[in-house]
Amino acid sequence: MLKKATIINKPWGHEELWAQTSRYVGKILFIKKDHRLSRQYHKIKQETIMVLEGTLTCEAGPYFEGDSIHVHIMEPGTVFHIEAGTIHRFCAEEEDVRLVEVSSTEIQDIVRLEDDYRRITDIPTPPPTSGK
Question: What is the pTM of this model?
Answer without folding.
Answer: 0.89
